Amino acid sequence: MRRPMVAGNWKMHGTRTSVAELIDGLRRLDLPSDVDVAVFPSCLHINQVIDGLKDQPISIGAQNSAVESMQGALTGEVAPSQLVDAGCSLVLVGHSERRQIMGEQDGMLIRKFAAAQACGLIPVLCIGETLEQREAGKTLEVVGRQLDSIIEELGVGVFAKAVIAYEPVWAIGTGLTASPQQAQDVHAAIRAQLAEKNSEVAQGVRLLYGGSVKAANAVELFGMPDIDGGLIGGASLNADEFGAICRAAGN
Ligand code: PEP
Predict the structure, then answer these.
(1) CA 20 to 30 Å from 216, out of 57, 84, 150, 238?
(2) Where is the active site (predicted)?
(3) Does the predicted TM-score (pTM) go above 0.90?
(4) Which residues are within 8 A (CB) of 127 and not within 5 positions of it... i.e. 6 or more apart?
(5) 1 confidence band (pLDDT: 50, 70, 90)
């Protein structure tokens, strides 16, 4: 059985004061013991969050990391080894905002994924199609290609120590959510694609859904057989809402 995971992506939100309030809210939550819970604060607030949640069952991740695993001459970047040193255990790779706004492409994401794993971080690979691609009937082709770029270069075995988040770009921050069936169809296709190479890896890997998940739609989404939890943006900035989403992923 796959253990569900709910992860909050705080994006470029927060000040020291608002992050302290969010930490307080998270500390007060009654989190389910059968769900892995993680938060991804901005890099600037990682130390504050690690200190504030150190006795809590919440893992901390970064939203991005460098293409090189070890610290060195790479201005403006943060090395996976530095994230591990700070106490992070996860890192997002290929969030659609970075693909679209920062121009990150498959070649760079392969390097980031490999560099993160080389340091023991768990990469959360984000994949998903735009509205235009969905309307053109290309969803599975696009998502399949994004996944294949990692498999071809690094091998399917890397997903034994990684998480995949399916995030349709048209559903991120828009209030539009993929229906549970739409999301399940893509998740099933992702798992089938992995199973063609290695069925054990395919059965074990956690596939999160992301895109306007809220407490009100989480139960239905997480009830689908291939949806193992969620990557939550906006709703993760409210501790009570996030807690309710975490509970929706539990039994
Ligand atoms: C995200 O940014 O990963 C995300 C899913 O955002 P939201 O929940 O706000 O749509």
Answers:
(1) 57
(2) 95 (electrophile), 167 (proton acceptor)
(3) yes
(4) 94, 143, 146, 147, 164, 165, 166, 167, 190
(5) confident
